[in-house]
Amino acid sequence: MQKRLVILGAGESGMGAALLGKKEGYEVFVSSLQTIEMRYKQVLQQEDIAFEEDQHSIERLLKADLVMKSPGIPEDAPVVVKLREARIKVISEIEFASLHTHAMLIGITGSNGKTTVTSWIHYILQNAGIDAVLAGNIGDSFAKNVARKSNNCYVLELSSFQLDGIETFKPHIAVLTNITPDHLDRYHNQFESYIAAKFRIVKNQTQQDYFIYDADDPVINKWLSQHEIKSIKIPLSSKELSGNGAFLKDDELHIKINESHFTMAQDDIALKGIHNTKNAMAASAVAQLLKIRKQTIKESLQRFHGVEHRLERVINKNKVTYINDSKATNINATYYALDSVKADTIWIVGGVDKGNDYTELLPLVNEKVKAIVCLGVDNQKIINSFNNCVDTIVETRDMQEAVDQAFNLANPGDTVLLSPACASFDLFKNYEDRGNQFKEAVLKLK
């Protein structure tokens, strides 16, 4: 008898799971509480996949043998609670896709830096001639890629939401860039629950697998001191390490893996800043584990120029630099952004607050920020946090207005930095939409 697969949510993850489910012979039904985007609806119609939008027909959903929940749907959503009460298995798209491939999996998670590290690893592998696919929380979904064709290697960016729904998913190489408070609204303001979600990446690893992590991160170190993991640990540090790992010594990057030792001048790394040096360590440690030539690694570290919407220099206009850091959706990411800017800064900030504590930013804001442009539906928390240290704070409700205000406030030599520290969903589809609108608005300036 044909198994019934229900997909909750019809975004990128839901669409990928629907296509893979059909390919694997499931009877697929897609259920979305929102209106489905036309581009996705057309795919469902072309593939003859049954769907509903603007509702969940509970009786029909309860007939499922398996449910794939999109990562944006919280665990305590009423429909998920009812399905679990009915003892129907609910998994993530990452889990579902992993059940249908035997490829080597490289999984990258962390509060910040995971997109850069994922893209950097993929870039190195491509340069080495390895047919690796970039997927997960970046580009096309993992499931959609598995549905398209058989591949030997996937490099997956993984959010905590995606990891929440795994049972057997196991990356051969897992990377954890760092852990700082983020998405606390989703985890009922329990930082420990968010930490546990991140560490699910090592849950199913064995002694034959590898775990690359920031050994300077106190949150990661505390968790590791309290929990056993089976995989081989590869630490990253700004201080010299004695065994396997990556570290800095005398302004040189050192990667020591299984008797192989790779070195490179820190100044030769394309992306600057200590956080990017850590990202380079993570990417090159993966490359060393895969026995990629040292010259290929070195050239890839020298030539990689980052990802869109992450400290992306848009233009220098009238001697004012405009930087798009729309991907900074939490305090820690914005801290890196403000720290990296050397000029007086007009800071565009705001959106959907995820339980932010802005006090960590106060020293940098005091030192660097001459004006704040709030961009959000509710900006009061930002205003209350910074009105004692920044003289000029203005409120805006759309990107063009925010950029125009920043333009009027900037003097030659200043930097206008979009680094929101918040999610984008109050005014934009996602952080990419926010970043693209920023770039469009900047390029329209006279």
TrEMBL record:
Residues 108-287 form the Mur ligase central domain. Residues 309-422 form the Mur ligase C-terminal domain. The keyword Nucleotide-binding applies. Its EC number is 6.3.2.9. It is found in: Cytoplasm. Pathway: Cell wall biogenesis; peptidoglycan biosynthesis. ATP binds at G110, S111, N112, G113, K114, T115, T116. Pfam families: Mur_ligase_C, Mur_ligase_M, MurD_N. SUPFAM superfamilies: MurCD N-terminal domain, MurD-like peptide ligases, catalytic domain, MurD-like peptide ligases, peptide-binding domain. It catalyses: UDP-N-acetyl-alpha-D-muramoyl-L-alanine + D-glutamate + ATP = UDP-N-acetyl-alpha-D-muramoyl-L-alanyl-D-glutamate + ADP + phosphate + H(+). GO terms for molecular function: UDP-N-acetylmuramoylalanine-D-glutamate ligase activity. Keywords: ATP-binding, Cell cycle, Cell division, Cell shape, Cell wall biogenesis/degradation, Cytoplasm, Ligase, Nucleotide-binding, Peptidoglycan synthesis. It is an enzyme of class 6 (ligase). Its main location: cytoplasm. Cell wall formation. Catalyzes the addition of glutamate to the nucleotide precursor UDP-N-acetylmuramoyl-L-alanine (UMA). Belongs to the MurCDEF family. NCBIfam families: murD. This is UDP-N-acetylmuramoylalanine--D-glutamate ligase.
